[in-house]
Request: fold
Amino acid sequence: MQIIPFIIFTFIINCLLDNLYNAIWISIKLFIVCNITIIYSETTSISGIAETIKILCTPLKIFKVSPDEIKIMICISLSMISILKRELYEVKEACIAKNINFNVKNMKIILAKFFLSLITRINQLEDSLIAKGYSNE
Amino acid sequence: MIRVENVSFKYKNSENKILDNLNFSVMDGEIIAIVGQNGSGKSTIGKLIAGIIKLKEGNIVIDDLNIRKNKKQKIIQDKVGIVFQNPENQIIFNNIYDEISFSLKGLEKTELEDRIQESLEQVGMLKYKNEDLYSLSLGQKQRIMIAEVLAKRPKYIIFDEPTTMIDSKGKEKIYKIIEKLKKEGYTIICITNLADEILIADRILILKNGKIVEEIKKEDLIEKAYVFRKFDIKEPTLLEILNSLKEKGIILDMKKFTINELVSKLKGKLKNEECN
Reply:
């Protein structure tokens, strides 16, 4: 249901910039791709998704790109989504407690706080990776 | 043994040194607690010993291996494990098996499985082996992080405020793990600002403005309890009770500094008085 406004928006833009036939065709393709992605992400664990991407990236070894590192990046990024969602919710509650409305006007304050905690988290994750023996040397 | 000799450290954008000519040593098999207020440099020492931050001034020698002269970080990381405050910032993989095996590259599959099994048993988390990490509570996640360190079989383990974000029940479980690890021969450095965590240590080092201002052995805790107040560190509750009893003329010879020991000593004292 959440993807429908996005598909409608795409349909309208393509109608304006192109023709109706292409707009319908692109919207149908987008609808199918979004649904397949949703089903895949709901039925596959983060490790599974990362492992799949790692296997698909194996040919990149020719260009000296490590698929293991790509797997680590995907795992961390996907895991961070739930953590950052919760963090954003905490920022919102803190703003409400301080009588700051959680809206576009106050976005500068909200984003500053959010990115500060994100950078702290990244620094701590870096320390943890080094402690676990990960090195990009 | 770990020897910290004349270590000073300053962060890049900082004017003042966070550690100033620090000297101390950690004997094999002991637990030392490093306590101090926020910003005193406790976590920095932990990161320097674990080889996470590069040491530029002074020497840290771990079993005759000088960190500053050693270019291979892996050798240090095989000897020293570190557990940080927030378990969520240490997690890379959602799968427990992948997470623990990340630090164990180069091992054969059978040995890898044995080590993972053993380390999960040591922290009482074997039944959660097939669970997703993110479905666990913070205390359980922290125990998995401890298991990950134990799987590497380090000789030294640094706990950097490991229970700050955890509830009291979770804290108790972690303290029990630390005590169990001590009995198994691990050398532990516990960095903390929680008063009750001091009591599990054999020696307590008080850090202020980057220097060690006081060193207290466990057997001298009651006599030197005033030192904690002097440096604005909250005394453990048990110590406050013992000191109050001492002021009333009741002197108890404590060894483990646990509530059970206090109760049994008091019972013994009352029985003696009844007999007299």
The mean pLDDT of chain A is 85. Chain A touches chain B through 23 residues (CB under 8 Å). Chain A is about 75% helix and 0% strand. The radius of gyration of chain A is 20 Å.
